[in-house]
Amino acid sequence: GHQDRQSGGMFTAEFITADCTKVRIREKYQDASMKFDLCSCQFSFHYCFESLAQAKMMLKNACECLNLGGYFIGTTPNSLEIMKRLRSSENKSFGNDVYRVTYELDDLDTVPLFGAKYNFHLEGVVDCPEFLVYFPMLEKLAEDYGMKLLYRKSFAEFFSENAEKGEYRGLLNRMQGLETYPSDNLMGKVPEDYTETEQTYQEILAHDDRPEHVRQRGPPKVGTLSKSEWEATTIYCVFAFQKVSDKATGRTWKPHSQEGDT
């Protein structure tokens, strides 16, 4: 409850430094029998697709300690979108002033399931090799750990479906995930970055039905990303798996079951 949160009794945490693609994390827990309801892996899962062994270890770490009915969620580069943009490029490279992807293998027509390396550069953040995730292979490997895919969606699709929902909209505001438009300090470096935003904004102004006392406070504001930033974010996809069976015990998960059934 609220008092528990104020007194610091909400939860405990352990912090472990390890390569999750090579080390079994369970062996480093203070209590190796711990179980979890959720595992979240954001913008890092794709590093395990350097090899089959690393992918298996990463999935073991993500899934083996989940309770039946527990979830494994993540965000990872969308290999389909990346390959689409690479094949549309002239020199196996695409991007803009925010990001750049450069494919490092010779043949775009024969892409290996593991070790499909590309270099990813994100302005001021990262410049390192990464690996394409062939999602049907990920889904197949996850089955070995009792995991069922609930959904996989492009970032653009997920954003379109959820950005206006209350809890997601509130989270975007708290995280300041979008910049305010219009503004004198926009992140984009060229006017073309905001062409579509400006068109939408003019439509909002033309149909401004806010109460008079609200309009007196000034023109409306909208949240947006520059075109360059949107192009960078839309190379990602989101996914969610659920643990529906425990291979060790033979128990299976059914909706509305607290313990799982055999």
TrEMBL record:
It comes from the Eukaryota. Pfam families: mRNA_G-N7_MeTrfase. The keyword Secreted does not apply. Its main location: nucleus. Keywords: Methyltransferase, mRNA capping, mRNA processing, Nucleus, RNA-binding, S-adenosyl-L-methionine, Transferase. The lineage of its organism: Eukaryota, Metazoa, Spiralia, Lophotrochozoa, Mollusca. Its EC number is 2.1.1.56. It catalyses: a 5'-end (5'-triphosphoguanosine)-ribonucleoside in mRNA + S-adenosyl-L-methionine = a 5'-end (N(7)-methyl 5'-triphosphoguanosine)-ribonucleoside in mRNA + S-adenosyl-L-homocysteine. InterPro entries: mRNA_G-N7_MeTrfase_dom (IPR004971), mRNA_G-N7_MeTrfase_euk (IPR016899), RG7MT1 (IPR039753), SAM-dependent_MTases_sf (IPR029063). It is found in: Nucleus. PANTHER family: MRNA CAP GUANINE-N7 METHYLTRANSFERASE, MRNA GUANINE-7- METHYLTRANSFERASE. Residues 1-244 form the MRNA cap 0 methyltransferase domain. GO terms for molecular function: mRNA 5'-cap (guanine-N7-)-methyltransferase activity; RNA binding. It comes from Magallana gigas (Pacific oyster). GO terms for cellular component: nucleus. This is mRNA (guanine-N(7))-methyltransferase. The keyword Glycosyltransferase does not apply.
